[in-house]
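ARCHIVE RECORD
Type: protein–small molecule complex
Small molecule: 6-chloroguanine
Source of inputs: curated submission
Record status: active
Notes field left blank by submitter.
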Amino acid sequence: MRIDIVTIFPGFFDVLDVSLLGKARLQGLLQVRAHDLRDYTHDRHRTVDDTPYGGGAGMVMRPEPWGEALDDVLAEDGDPVVIFPSPAGERFSQPIAAELAQEGHLVFACGRYEGIDQRVVEHTAQRARVRELSLGDYVLNGGEVAALAMIEAIARLVPGVIGNPASLDEESHSELGLLEYPSYTKPAAWRGLEVPDVLLSGNHGAIARWRRAQQEERTRRVRPDLLQD
Ligand code: 6GU
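STRUCTURE (tokenized, with ligand):
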């Protein structure tokens, strides 16, 4: 999978060099490139924003640098999906991550300030598949941290990135729609707290039933919204 990111802070994406995704990049499973939006400006101050038409607080990112940056990134191979991280977007989720993990090329267009001139989204939709995606109901200062979260959620579903694909099956927000059960490892007693007996019993049926009951109890308690439909 190839991932291009357009941002005024390419350094945010240096963290993709480490951990599992860093390894996937070294193995060639993932190619990530961060492009500096300011490289597509032509004035001495490398200006990317201006005041909003209609008035209001904050600044809006001007369309011209975005147009040129996306011209560049979209001129290269493939049939990418262009993602605009935005608190006004559709809610990102595990099914969307799984869908995007099937793609060969993703482009993340990370806005700052009060957002990007909406014509950039409109124009991009005329030449590529576009998704405006939000992480959740809170506000970040820009799309960069949201893009990092989405990239991690998507890339770990690309075949080969995770060593043991079975570990993807039982986690929260997998097809079952329940939160994960709690996990324990050695020692069996630690600071006066014991691992539940059933996990030491060797009774695989009883363990599976206990885990399922824990998932249902935890989901009912902290995320009852997941049980509605
Ligand atoms: Cl995708 N962007 C910003 N700026 N804030 C957010 C978000 C995205 N998702 C949740 N809050």
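CURATOR ANNOTATION: The helical segments are 19-26, 63-75, 94-100, 118-125, 143-155, 204-222.
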